[in-house]
Write a structure and sequence with these properties.
This protein is an alpha/beta fold. It has a single domain (7-168), classed as Rossmann fold. 48% of the residues lie in helices and 19% in strands. A hairpin with a 4-residue loop joins β3 (48-52) and β4 (57-60). The protein starts with 6 loop residues before the first strand and ends with a helix. The chain binds 2'-deoxyadenosine-5'-diphosphate.
Length: 176
Protein backbone atom coordinates (compact mmCIF):
# COMPACT_ATOMS: atom_id res chain seq x y z
CA UNK A 1 0.00 0.00 0.00
CA UNK A 2 1.33 3.44 -0.81
CA UNK A 3 1.83 6.00 1.92
CA UNK A 4 -1.09 8.25 2.84
CA UNK A 5 1.16 10.80 4.55
CA UNK A 6 4.84 11.69 4.32
CA UNK A 7 7.79 11.03 6.60
CA UNK A 8 9.33 14.30 7.72
CA UNK A 9 12.63 14.52 9.60
CA UNK A 10 13.12 17.62 11.76
CA UNK A 11 16.75 17.83 12.75
CA UNK A 12 19.12 20.41 14.19
CA UNK A 13 21.55 20.93 17.06
CA UNK A 14 19.89 20.38 20.48
CA UNK A 15 17.99 23.55 21.42
CA UNK A 16 17.32 24.76 17.86
CA UNK A 17 13.59 24.05 18.25
CA UNK A 18 12.90 20.58 16.84
CA UNK A 19 10.32 19.54 19.43
CA UNK A 20 8.60 22.95 19.39
CA UNK A 21 8.32 22.76 15.59
CA UNK A 22 7.19 19.12 15.55
CA UNK A 23 4.43 19.81 18.10
CA UNK A 24 3.04 22.77 16.18
CA UNK A 25 3.33 20.93 12.88
CA UNK A 26 1.29 17.99 14.20
CA UNK A 27 -1.45 20.45 15.23
CA UNK A 28 -1.51 22.28 11.92
CA UNK A 29 -0.88 19.49 9.45
CA UNK A 30 -3.63 18.79 6.89
CA UNK A 31 -2.86 15.04 7.19
CA UNK A 32 -2.55 13.11 10.46
CA UNK A 33 1.05 13.10 11.65
CA UNK A 34 2.57 11.46 14.68
CA UNK A 35 5.47 13.17 16.44
CA UNK A 36 8.26 10.78 17.35
CA UNK A 37 10.87 12.26 19.66
CA UNK A 38 13.63 9.78 18.86
CA UNK A 39 15.67 10.58 21.98
CA UNK A 40 12.66 9.83 24.21
CA UNK A 41 11.89 6.65 22.27
CA UNK A 42 15.48 5.44 22.77
CA UNK A 43 15.13 5.91 26.53
CA UNK A 44 11.62 4.50 26.77
CA UNK A 45 12.36 1.32 24.79
CA UNK A 46 15.96 1.04 25.99
CA UNK A 47 17.36 1.20 22.46
CA UNK A 48 20.84 2.06 23.69
CA UNK A 49 24.11 0.30 24.30
CA UNK A 50 25.33 2.41 27.19
CA UNK A 51 24.95 5.67 29.09
CA UNK A 52 27.86 8.07 29.14
CA UNK A 53 27.91 9.79 32.54
CA UNK A 54 30.48 12.31 31.40
CA UNK A 55 28.44 13.55 28.47
CA UNK A 56 25.11 12.71 30.05
CA UNK A 57 23.98 10.99 26.88
CA UNK A 58 23.16 7.55 25.51
CA UNK A 59 25.05 5.55 22.91
CA UNK A 60 22.21 4.48 20.68
CA UNK A 61 21.85 0.92 19.40
CA UNK A 62 21.16 1.91 15.79
CA UNK A 63 20.01 -1.52 14.62
CA UNK A 64 17.46 -1.76 17.41
CA UNK A 65 16.27 1.79 16.75
CA UNK A 66 15.79 1.16 13.02
CA UNK A 67 13.92 -2.10 13.70
CA UNK A 68 11.64 -0.23 16.10
CA UNK A 69 10.91 2.54 13.60
CA UNK A 70 10.64 0.51 10.37
CA UNK A 71 6.90 -0.38 10.51
CA UNK A 72 5.77 3.19 11.26
CA UNK A 73 8.22 4.69 8.80
CA UNK A 74 6.99 2.54 5.93
CA UNK A 75 3.39 3.46 6.75
CA UNK A 76 4.23 7.19 6.71
CA UNK A 77 2.61 10.01 8.63
CA UNK A 78 5.41 10.66 11.10
CA UNK A 79 7.66 13.49 12.16
CA UNK A 80 11.03 12.21 13.32
CA UNK A 81 12.55 14.66 15.79
CA UNK A 82 16.26 14.05 16.37
CA UNK A 83 19.58 15.86 16.45
CA UNK A 84 21.06 13.55 13.86
CA UNK A 85 19.58 12.38 10.56
CA UNK A 86 22.06 10.19 8.73
CA UNK A 87 20.87 6.97 10.34
CA UNK A 88 17.44 6.99 8.62
CA UNK A 89 17.43 5.16 5.26
CA UNK A 90 16.85 7.48 2.28
CA UNK A 91 13.86 5.44 1.12
CA UNK A 92 11.98 6.32 4.32
CA UNK A 93 12.32 10.04 4.12
CA UNK A 94 10.32 12.62 2.09
CA UNK A 95 11.54 15.87 3.66
CA UNK A 96 14.43 16.85 5.93
CA UNK A 97 14.12 20.14 7.80
CA UNK A 98 17.34 21.42 9.38
CA UNK A 99 16.73 24.08 12.02
CA UNK A 100 19.39 26.72 12.62
CA UNK A 101 19.89 29.19 15.42
CA UNK A 102 22.30 31.99 16.21
CA UNK A 103 24.90 30.53 18.58
CA UNK A 104 24.54 33.05 21.42
CA UNK A 105 20.81 32.45 21.52
CA UNK A 106 21.40 28.71 21.39
CA UNK A 107 23.86 28.97 24.30
CA UNK A 108 21.17 30.66 26.41
CA UNK A 109 18.58 28.02 25.54
CA UNK A 110 20.93 25.20 26.54
CA UNK A 111 21.96 26.97 29.74
CA UNK A 112 18.29 27.29 30.67
CA UNK A 113 17.92 23.57 30.04
CA UNK A 114 20.61 22.96 32.67
CA UNK A 115 23.12 21.26 30.36
CA UNK A 116 26.66 20.90 31.75
CA UNK A 117 29.09 23.49 30.36
CA UNK A 118 30.98 20.91 28.30
CA UNK A 119 27.78 19.84 26.57
CA UNK A 120 26.76 23.44 25.90
CA UNK A 121 30.19 24.13 24.38
CA UNK A 122 30.09 21.00 22.24
CA UNK A 123 26.64 21.79 20.87
CA UNK A 124 27.44 25.44 20.35
CA UNK A 125 30.51 24.53 18.34
CA UNK A 126 28.54 21.99 16.31
CA UNK A 127 26.00 24.70 15.43
CA UNK A 128 28.75 27.09 14.32
CA UNK A 129 30.41 24.35 12.26
CA UNK A 130 27.06 23.39 10.65
CA UNK A 131 27.59 19.74 11.60
CA UNK A 132 23.92 18.75 11.44
CA UNK A 133 23.35 20.56 8.15
CA UNK A 134 26.40 18.95 6.53
CA UNK A 135 25.27 15.56 7.70
CA UNK A 136 21.77 16.03 6.25
CA UNK A 137 23.19 17.30 2.97
CA UNK A 138 25.53 14.38 2.61
CA UNK A 139 22.83 11.82 3.46
CA UNK A 140 19.89 12.98 1.32
CA UNK A 141 19.18 14.42 -2.12
CA UNK A 142 19.59 18.20 -2.03
CA UNK A 143 15.97 18.76 -3.21
CA UNK A 144 14.56 17.31 0.00
CA UNK A 145 16.82 19.12 2.48
CA UNK A 146 15.57 22.50 3.71
CA UNK A 147 17.51 24.77 6.09
CA UNK A 148 15.27 27.03 8.23
CA UNK A 149 16.07 29.70 10.82
CA UNK A 150 14.52 29.10 14.26
CA UNK A 151 15.22 32.14 16.39
CA UNK A 152 11.81 33.70 17.04
CA UNK A 153 8.14 32.84 17.30
CA UNK A 154 7.66 34.41 13.86
CA UNK A 155 10.27 32.00 12.48
CA UNK A 156 8.47 29.09 14.12
CA UNK A 157 5.12 30.07 12.64
CA UNK A 158 6.39 30.76 9.15
CA UNK A 159 8.46 27.56 9.14
CA UNK A 160 5.45 25.46 10.11
CA UNK A 161 3.28 27.24 7.51
CA UNK A 162 5.91 26.43 4.92
CA UNK A 163 6.00 22.75 5.86
CA UNK A 164 2.18 22.61 5.79
CA UNK A 165 2.34 24.02 2.26
CA UNK A 166 4.87 21.39 1.33
CA UNK A 167 2.55 18.66 2.71
CA UNK A 168 -0.32 19.97 0.54
CA UNK A 169 1.89 19.63 -2.53
CA UNK A 170 3.00 16.17 -1.45
CA UNK A 171 -0.65 15.12 -1.15
CA UNK A 172 -1.49 16.34 -4.64
CA UNK A 173 1.55 14.59 -6.10
CA UNK A 174 0.60 11.36 -4.33
CA UNK A 175 -3.13 11.57 -5.00
CA UNK A 176 -4.10 11.32 -1.34
P1 LIG B 1 15.14 20.90 20.47
O1 LIG B 1 13.96 19.97 20.36
O2 LIG B 1 15.78 21.18 19.13
O3 LIG B 1 16.15 20.50 21.49
P2 LIG B 1 13.22 22.70 21.69
O4 LIG B 1 12.07 22.67 20.74
O5 LIG B 1 13.11 21.91 22.94
O6 LIG B 1 14.58 22.33 20.92
O7 LIG B 1 13.48 24.25 22.02
C1 LIG B 1 14.44 24.64 22.99
C2 LIG B 1 13.98 25.92 23.64
O8 LIG B 1 14.04 27.00 22.73
C3 LIG B 1 12.54 25.89 24.14
O9 LIG B 1 12.50 26.61 25.35
C4 LIG B 1 11.75 26.63 23.09
C5 LIG B 1 12.77 27.58 22.52
N1 LIG B 1 12.60 27.79 21.07
C6 LIG B 1 12.87 26.91 20.10
N2 LIG B 1 12.64 27.41 18.88
C7 LIG B 1 12.20 28.66 19.08
C8 LIG B 1 11.78 29.71 18.21
N3 LIG B 1 11.78 29.58 16.87
N4 LIG B 1 11.38 30.87 18.77
C9 LIG B 1 11.38 31.04 20.11
N5 LIG B 1 11.77 30.09 20.99
C10 LIG B 1 12.17 28.91 20.48
Amino acid sequence: MSKQAPVIVITGTPGTGKTTHAQLLVEESPVPLKHINVGDLVKEKELYEAYDEDWQSYTVDEDKLLDELEPTASEGGIVLDWHTSDIFPERWVDLVVVLRCDHTRLWERLEKRGYPLKKIQENNEAEIMEVVLDEARSSYASEIVVELKSESTEDLESNVARIVQWIETWRKDHGT
